[in-house]
Amino acid sequence: MNKPLETLAESHGIQIRYVSEMGEPKEIGEAAQDGLLRALQVDPTGGEAGHFAQAEHKASLACALPGSVASRRAWGVTCQLYSLRSARNLGIGDFEDLAVLAETVAPTGASFVGVNPLHALFLADAGHYSPYSPSTRRFINPFYLAVDTIEGGAEAIAALRQAEPDLFEGLDGELVDYRAVARVKVPLLRTLYEGAKDGLGRDESFRAFLERGGDALRGFALFEAISESVRADGGSAGWHHWPEDLRDRNGEGARVFEAGHEDQIRFHVWLQYQCDRQLAEAQRRAKAAGMGIGLYLDFAVGVSPDGAETWADPALTVREARVGSPPDMFNSDGQDWGLAPLSPKALAERQYAPLSAAYASLMEHAGAIRIDHAMGLARLWWIPEGERSGGGGYVRYPLGAMVDALARVSQDTNCLVIGEDLGTVPEGFREAMTDSHILSYKVLYFERWKDGLFKATGEYPETSLACISTHDLATLSGWWHGSDVRLRAETGRQNAAATQRDMAERDRDRRTLMAALRHENLLPPEEIALADGGATLPARLPFELALAIHRFGARTRSMLFAVQMEDMIGSEKQPNLPGTTDEYPNWRIRSDIRLEELAADERFQAMARAMRDERPETP
């Protein structure tokens, strides 16, 4: 034990000891302490002590909890926006699809519609499509623009389809082909911009948007313009591999480029203007359709190290570390998410204004937001440069100040906040969430006692959102069938013995869940005998049983209950398989049903009826 090193590390917010998700005490080694101190620009052999302990205080504010939400148990639908199919979209779900989905599910009693993060990625590189690795969290991904709803859009699509029909081939496949989408959408958007740009100077709403966006909007548009130019010359969309003179936002090279490419920059400003308008319109239509909450948007835990946010403001993030997660029961080596951690020092010096600005951007057109990996309000697992995930450690953030920054924006926008608190949760964190009106995130698969039994519906806390599954886990049908276990085997992530073990455990889990349903008198008559354990369970999940499981989730005390689109129609395909890249089509799987067919789908209507029964519109 190196006590002086420990003392120095702890004074700078590095957590030497923590408790794993299994309740086991853990301790990070000297190499991790050394690497994390260096990432924080502190000399491990003689650096000055930090003042993290003095920065700690309880939150003084609480997030908004609108009375219309708190007074009743509501439910809603979640989806991956890119996955939505419709007769009119161009190979990827868009903001018009989002509005139509809201208008479809609202009459059935749904209070919200949730989506994956909509943050801007890299328009110049369509191959960078993970919604949880954005270029910035301040701006929006233009691939979600509904081209046909922009003035002249329908005519432009028809003209391009006639001139280059081959471009449209493959857009209606089983997977989203982002590069094919880009080959169609980007030229169309440029055409529409060319037709609109002369009138922008007289457009009061555009001028107001430009003024509100300020330097941040200008900087993002400049980044996108440079990224596009470098990419066109065979370079990288991310700035780490740009020519040296362009890597500095305030350098001579960037200034020269900016002076010579005003129209290109204005194009990217216009794209954000259109994104803002279309997202606002989707929320307006959701509320007009009767939704109490409307859009439920997602806030990613961090940004890509080579994106617009780190380029425009490099001091705000720490370049010598990456965000990930420690080794746990699901990933023995831990996870490396490859995200840039925010600098606790820079945040404090700026009174958390950059984080507040990102929250405000998201909450402006949302009734609720989800904070991905909400424990990041208190600490993040940093991986020092040159180390693997297991060689990292937790770096703490002042929880009270972080929550106050979030709560202030939440109150200003009257926006509900849900914190995804799965995984290794620090002691006292969930209590702090409750005190601050941040709803906990309760996934049925994980809501069990230590003996494996599923918790009863009355055990769920009221200040929470409950759901059956998430984008990183098997859908309900997939879970029942063991599709996630089979996928881990097929992608080489576990051996035959582990697969056999996990399938046997899944059979026990299914029977345990059946027992929980029977306790709630929710088992369909034909399934009661199966619950006694004397019969073989069906390999595929009967839809009546899927309804019963969702009734169980909806019956919990949780303020909100979310139903995945995939589960409403019985799909087995999960959106993302963590730990894989090319082995599985992450973030590309499209819905099994078109939006135009959803309202008439018997499975959808049956699920909606079940939700209304368990969570009627009047308290």
Describe the structure.
This protein is an alpha/beta fold and 619 residues long. 41% of the residues lie in helices and 10% in strands. The chain contains 23 helices and 15 strands. Helix 13 (353-363) packs parallel to helix 14 (399-413). The longest helix has 29 residues, at 204-232. The relative contact order is 0.13. The model has no long low-confidence stretch (mean pLDDT 95).
Major pleated sheet: 8 strands, parallel
- Count every helix, treating DSSP H or I runs of 4 or more residues as helices: 23
Average residue pLDDT: 95
Amino-to-carboxy terminus distance: 58 Å
The number of distinct β-strands equals: 15
Please give the share of residues in helix.
40-55%
Sequence stretches where pLDDT stays below 50 over 5 or more residues: none
Q: How would you describe the oligomerization state of the chains in this entry? A: single chain
The Rg value, from CA coordinates, equals 25 Å
Shape type: globular
Strand content: 5-15%
Strand order of the largest sheet: 12-9-6-5-4-15-14-13
From the helix content, strand content and strand pairing, which structural class follows? alpha/beta
What topology does this entry show?
Blueprint: H1 3-11, E1 14-15, E2 17-19, E3 25-27, H2 30-39, H3 52-55, H4 67-70, E4 74-78, H5 95-105, E5 112-114, H6 153-163, H7 178-196, H8 204-232, H9 252-260, H10 262-288, E6 294-299, H11 308-312, E7 321-325, E8 335-339, H12 344-349, H13 353-363, E9 368-371, E10 379-384, E11 393-396, H14 399-413, E12 416-419, H15 429-435, E13 440-443, E14 464-467, H16 476-481, H17 483-490, H18 496-519, H19 525-531, H20 543-554, E15 560-564, H21 565-568, H22 595-598, H23 602-614
Parallel strand pairs: 4-5, 4-15, 5-6, 6-9, 9-12, 13-14, 14-15
Antiparallel strand pairs: 1-11, 2-3, 7-8, 7-10, 10-11
Helix pairs in contact: 1-2, 5-10, 6-7, 8-10, 13-14, 17-18, 18-19, 20-23
